[in-house]
Amino acid sequence: MRTVTCLSYTGQPSNECPESLRPATMQQCESKCDATPNSNNDECKDVNKVAYCPLVLKFKFCSRGYFRQMCCKTCQGH
């Protein structure tokens, strides 16, 4: 679940957002959550060039496919 907030171009709360243009408050995840380890032999590791994996975890971005892949080790179990 997520909170949908209407903001002005300056980032201030606004009532100017048409309801028809707002994204849904709830949406089923596109990713498949496997309880089993990777079936292929790829080692789960954070991509070396990515130094922001602790921030990915802190801001709860592990549910997003790209970040989960780039920060596999950091996101394991989250």
TrEMBL record:
<feature type="domain" description="PLAC">
    <location>
        <begin position="40"/>
        <end position="78"/>
    </location>
</feature>
<dbReference type="GO" id="GO:0008237">
    <property type="term" value="F:metallopeptidase activity"/>
</dbReference>
<keyword id="KW-0378">Hydrolase</keyword>
<dbReference type="InterPro" id="IPR010909">
    <property type="entry name" value="PLAC"/>
</dbReference>
<keyword id="KW-0645">Protease</keyword>
<dbReference type="Pfam" id="PF08686">
    <property type="entry name" value="PLAC"/>
</dbReference>
<protein>
    <submittedName>
        <fullName>A disintegrin and metalloproteinase with thrombospondin motifs 6</fullName>
    </submittedName>
</protein>
<keyword id="KW-0732">Signal</keyword>
<keyword id="KW-0482">Metalloprotease</keyword>
